[in-house]
């Protein structure tokens, strides 16, 4: 490194490569965390509300249909569409955080 802080590879030297690798690892860690959380929510709504907790939810009704049946037929689809929109906004935020242009 010279007196101006420049290494052989430019202003940051080999630290730029290390920082890029850390950004890459952090980016994928955040993406996998988001994806896992959203899949867990979708599983809980579609399988949990539609199958596991159907008997309990059938005590209530929505639009004249038992709530467990409604979740199995409609609710999981609505939640899935909502999760898609949330995923788009969350990925845009993650990409801004890591300065990824898409």
Could you explain how this protein is built, in words?
The protein has three helices and two strands, in the order ααββα. The chain is mainly alpha-helical. The chain has a two-stranded antiparallel ribbon.
Largest sheet: 2 strands, antiparallel
Element order, helices and strands?
Answer: HHEEH
Strand content: under 5%
Radius of gyration: 23 Å
Physical arrangement of strands within the biggest beta sheet = 1-2
In whole angstroms, the N-to-C terminal distance is 34 Å
Secondary structure: number of strands: 2
- Taking pLDDT < 50 over at least 5 consecutive residues as the criterion, the unreliable ranges are none
- The helix content is over 70%
- What's the total helix number? 3
Helix-strand category: mainly alpha
Average pLDDT: 84
Silhouette: elongated
Compact summary:
This protein is mostly helical and 102 residues long.
Which short descriptors sum up this protein?
two-stranded antiparallel ribbon; 102 residues; mainly alpha; 2 strands; 4% strand
Task: Present the secondary structure layout.
Layout: H1 15-52, H2 54-57, E1 61-62, E2 65-66, H3 67-97
Antiparallel strand pairs: 1-2
Helix pairs in contact: 1-3
